[in-house]
UniProtKB/TrEMBL annotation:
Subcellular location: Nucleus
Key words, A-Z: Coiled coil, Isopeptide bond, mRNA processing, mRNA splicing, Nucleus, Phosphoprotein, RNA-mediated gene silencing, Spliceosome, Ubl conjugation
Record's protein name: FHA domain-containing protein
Organism domain of life: Eukaryota
Alphabetical list of CDD domains matching this protein: FHA_SNIP1
UniProt biased composition (Acidic residues): 165-180
Organism for this UniProt entry: Micrurus corallinus
Disordered, as annotated region: 161-188
Amino acid sequence: NKNTDKEASKKEKPSFELSGALLEDSNTFRGVVIKYSEPPEARIPKKRWRLYPFKNDEVLPVMYIHRQSAYLLGRHRRIADIPIDHPSCSKQHAVFQYRLVQYTRPDGTAGRKVKPYIIDLGSGNGTFLNNQRIEPQRYYELREKDVLKFGFSSREYVLLHESSDATEDDQKTEEEEEEESTCRADSE
């Protein structure tokens, strides 16, 4: 009877960690399991997007976010592409994701373009788009001049691209540029 008691106390406790094939399938980077996997429509953008961070009225260094298809934001400095150090932010807080999506041109034909999105990874204190908390685990399309905030940090990030500072009259829409390149190709 004493032997069975000893065996029972030596029994291994259940482990709910990933193991075997599940662990191999997990997305790890620098030894850390990443909560996020890129979708099949992930693309590197042609447009040169930038994040302009502000803390109160102080302008901080510009972040160039057009060189890869996704950027992980969070407190975990070993894996975050864009570190956010505020204690109210999660280790893996949110992801900027560029996605190739379909849209309808003004003439009714279908086109495809790469657009920026934000997804909150189930952070404790949320991600805010233009002062509205977004739902976790859902993509939100971002537009030029959108403002992002993470957790309770006072830092704001304004999304712009390289031609954002041009005047409205000088800017051509993507559709106009596409039409011009199509017309040039047709006339050659």
